[in-house]
Structure formats: C-alpha cells, structure tokens
Amino acid sequence: MYNELFEKMVSYPQPEFSMSQDAFDLLKGIGDHKLTPKLASSLQKEMRRLVEIQNFDLARQYKDLYYRVVKWDAPVNFESFLIAMEFDREPDRRFYLPRKHVLHPMVKDIQSLMDGEIDELFLSMPPRVGKTGLSTFYVAWLLGKDPELSNLYISYTASVAQAFYDGILEVINDKYTYNWQDIFPDAPLVMTNAKDATLDIARKKKYHSFTARSLYGTLNGALDVTGVLILDDLLSGYEEAINPDRLITAWGLVDNNAITRAKLSAKLFWIGTRWSMADPIGRRIDMLDNNPFFKNHKYKIYNIPALNENDESNFEYQYNKGFTTEYFRQRRASFEANNDAASFFAMYQGEPIEREGSLFAVDDFHYFNGELPDKPDRIYIVCDPAFGGGDFTACSICYQYGEDVYIPDVIYSNLDKSYTIPMIVKRVENYGVQLVRVEATKTTKSYSEGIEKELKAQGFHTVVTNVPAPSTTSKAERIGTTSADIKKHFYFLNNTHWTKEYAQFMANVFSYKIIGKNKHDDAPDCLAQTVSEAFKRKAAKAEVFARPF
Questions:
Q1: For residue 321, with 0-12 CB atoms within 10 Å meaning exposed, 13-18 middle and 19 or more buried, which class applies?
Q2: Is residue 539 part of a domain?
C-alpha cells in the first residue's frame, strides 16, 4: 500500500510542495516500517529526484525539505552525508559541492567499497586537492553509521596521523560548522585520548572506534580492524622512494603489521603519492594483479593527474578552491629547472618512475618542442604488436634525419587489434608514413595482414614489413644493447606536448629495470626495434679492381 501511494505522488512531473511533503512523510513511514533495504533505497532515490527538481533556493520550504531528505538518507548514502554535513555553510566554505564535478566518481567508489561491491580502493591525486578531506568525511561517516566497527588510519609519520585524528574530532565536535551530531543523534562521542590518537563512539571499547598510528609506531594491542583500514602516504618522499632498503622496510611493515590487523570483513583504502613502482601501493597492486590467490578479490585503482591529456588542469574547483592550468604548469617548470621532472610526474601526475636500477632516466634523453626539421630522410612506424589481454601494442612514429630519429607521436594501447590497427592506419595518413615495420612472431601474422588490408581499403600504398626478433638474444639483451643509441640519437617530445598516450609510453620506458621483473616492457622493446630499423647494416659490396702490386 505504501509503495503504491508513493508511486502515485512521484508520478507528477512538478508536484506541489504539499505533495512533496506528504511524499517524504510517507517515505519515512515506509522506512520506519523496515521494508527491504533494496526497496527503501529505491524510494530514497525517487524522493531525492522529487525534491531536486524544485528550485529550492527560491523557496525556504523546499530547502528545509531537501535537508530532511539528505539527512534521512545520510546514514546509508555517502554523498547524502557529504551534502547534509555542510548544508548550512556558505557555498564558498563547503568542501564537497564546489569539488563535486571532480570528486563525485570517487564518492561513488567509496560507496561501492562500503556496499561490498569492491574490497579495496586505491586513490592517487596531487597534493592539496581533497584527498585528506574526503577520507576525513569518510571516517566520520563510518563512525556515525556503525559505531561498533573499529577503524585504523596509518601514515608514514606520527604527526600526520595526529593531524588526521584532530580532523576527525573537529568534524564530530564542531556543531556550528558541521551537522554530524544532527545526523547521528544516537552516536555520542564518549572517549578521546589525544596521546594515543584514539576515540570511541556510543560506548567505550577494547578495540576503539578509531585509532591513528604511524607506520613506524607500534600497533601491538591497538585493534582488530572491522571497518576500514586507511593507508595514507606511507612514504615520506623522494629520499625514501629511491632507497631500496627503505622500500623493503616500508612494505614489510605494511604487509606484516598493518594488513594483518584487518579482519576479513574489513575494507582497505589506499591513498598516496605514487613515488615508486616498488612502493607499498605498487607492491600491493602487483600482488592483486598477479597472485592467483587474489583472483576473486575486487579492487579499483583511481588516479587523477594534475594535468589531463590536453595539458590542462583537472582541478579547477568552484570559488577558486582548486588549482589552475597555469599553476600546475608553473610547478612542472620548477621541477624541470631543478632537473627533477620525474618527481613532478610522481607527485602531480600519479606516474611512479623508477630511478634506482632503471635503465633509462628522464634526463638521459634528447627532447624537442614538437617542431620537426625539414626534409626527413625517411618516415616510418615501428610496431611491437599485441592482442590486448593486458599486453600493450607499442609503436613509434619516426622521422629520421641521418642518424637522428625524432618521435613526434606514439601508440600505446592495451586494446585489441580491432582498435589498434585503425590507430596505425590513422598515423600513416597523418604523417605520410612510407613504411610500417611489425615485429614478426608466430602469432602476429594476422596483425600485419590486418594492417595491409586496412591500408589497401583506405587507398594507401605503404610498405608493411615483418621482421622477426633475433633468435640469438633475449628481449632484455636487445633493450640493453640498444639503450646507448636510444639515448644518443633519439629525440622525444618534451613533456609539455605529451598526450596521455605519449606519457604512458614514456612512463613505461622510464620504469624499465635492468635487474628484476618488468611487468610491461613493450615501450622499451619498441624503441629497441626502432634502433634496429634506424641503423640497418648496409650489405657488403664486392668490387673488381686491379692488383696494386
């Protein structure tokens, strides 16, 4: 009966306020009668739609009704919680709504984490764009919705952990700024301990509602995590990231001390700057990707770089709360002036770049600004093909001038050949390519044939060659022996002209390690093959001449 009445009320495209009010009271009655969570959630969404179509800024009564809706929805819906928490603040003072157009996908992912749709969430964004604020509200939400859960926050230093703890207390206690106490009236704060950075909600517990710790501090007797384990910035910065011993130590503490605190029902939320492929986040992702015991483990990786593929800011928030394109470009220029472009890519672009043990460094290469010299000797594409499934097709578009090779564009994609072959043909058209060289294996014949077929269909008379990899050397040897020529003779776009695809290609090159396992080596292998094409040995010539004696 409740359901039928509600559906009639919401069927009107622009109902009167009294009908909206009655619909909400009816919906609340449905909730109070404890109908199934699925039905209640569906009706909550309908109620929010019903109210949001009103211009509630023009009518206080609608604004009040809207607050009643989001407050009622807040214990089960994270976004409703974020809106309700700051409902009475001035628009330019709020955290979430001025940033919603960027943070909304992450809010949905956090909801998925808590609803059990995923088990772990990885989040990487530049400094000061909202990571800490979002995670602070997240923990505050958990503390109110289920005070019996035990939650743990860990960072690389005690001062950062203490600051996060203080932020949680501010959100809970400041009733003039935040509506936490109004949203959760039955979840009082009953214990705080600033020295141990612990607090309890609703009742005092052996395993506290919330605890904050340093990675290098003690966790003995701290708690068993039944809610969420947040691992935030587990490396202090550049110095620690380039020290293999510190990376090993950090991972040991995370794997042996922190993760073991999490019960099976607990969720893991990773936040931080991706300094290194071997940092704790990288080690964890590698395990989830490659260890068969984690094949049913659901996780999501979320990375938003400072600058998008068009070299423009991803964080232009309302009310000047974010950072402009000019600001991020200035930060990049500053890092480049200090010969440390790699740190910019780690801190601001979320691209971990190996230094220690890597074959290629950012400063090893020649770069150009996108303007090519006139009259190249040859224009060609070298392609290391793949068929998707995690491997990448990597291609270099090459303009050769004597022994110098300029690479104004690349292809780097893990899509299947139905996508990557048209990409190659498009480059042939755009650059007037004369030759496409494809590495030949037992499985790539169809790839070359697909390129030839597509080129013919488009009316291009471009030579496609199949060149097998040498059988006498391994891929690693081939990359190693050609590295000197790559550094000496190749010219790459400077990073102000990188597309997202070009940046991923270069990140794969810079992350290639001399010793150890490389998860992907497609881009450096493509460059090794490019060396082979660029410096073909000329055939020996026989000539008859008179005896000189």
A1: middle
A2: no
Identify which of 200, 209, 202, 137 has the alpha carbon closest to the alpha carbon of residue 168.
137
Those residues with Cβ within 8 angstroms of residue 94's Cβ, 6 or more apart along the chain or in another chain: 86
- DSSP states of 274-309: ---TTSHHHHHHHHHHH-GGGTT--EEEEE--SB-T
Q: Are residues 194 and 295 in the same domain?
A: yes
For 174, the domain range is 86-356
341 and 365, same structural domain? Answer: no
- Tens digit of pLDDT for each residue in 357-369? 678 877 789 999 9
Taking phi over 0 as left and psi of -120 to 50 as alpha, with beta for the rest, 116 belongs to: left
- Residue 190: the pLDDT is 96
pLDDT of residue 19 exceeding 80: no
Cα→Cα distances 157→66, 128, 465, Å: 41, 18, 56
- pLDDT higher than threshold 70 for residue 5: no
Choosing from 326, 356, 386, the residue where a domain stops is 356
- Measured between alpha carbons, how far is 471 from 457 in angstroms, rounded to an integer? 34
Query: Containing H/E element for 492?
Result: strand 490-493
Same domain, 481 and 341: no
**Distance, CA of 6 to CA of 28 (rounded, Å):** 11
Phi, psi torsion values for 84, nearest 5 degrees: -65, -35
Asked if residue 546 is part of any domain, the answer here is: no
pTM: 0.65
Asked if residue 434 lies in contact with residue 461, where contact means CB atoms within 8 angstroms, the answer is no
- pLDDT tens readout for residues 138-151: 999 999 999 999 99
Determine the average pLDDT of the residues in 86-92. Answer: 90
Which residue in this structure is represented by tokens 């020295």? 195
In angstroms, what CA-CA distances link 52 with 31, 49, 63, 372? 20, 5, 10, 54
pLDDT at res. 248: 86
Residue 274 and residue 329 share a domain: yes
* Residue 448 backbone dihedrals phi, psi, to 5 degrees: -60, -40
Residue 113: inside a domain, yes or no? yes
As for how many domains the chain has, the answer is 3
SS3 label, residue 411: strand
Same domain (yes/no): 468, 336: no
Verify that 102 and 160 share a domain, yes or no: yes
Q: Is residue 80 part of a domain?
A: no
Any idea what the Cα angle at residue 26 is, between residues 20 and 30, rounded to 5°?
140
Q: Are 302 and 264 in contact (CB under 8 A)?
A: no
- SS3 labels along 92-148: HHCCCHHHHHHHHHHHHHHHHHHCCCCCEEEEECCCCCCHHHHHHHHHHHHHHHCCC
Which of these, 78, 218, 204, 242, lies nearest to 154 by C-alpha position? 218
176 and 118, same domain (yes or no) = yes
Number of H helices, E strands in the chain: 19, 15
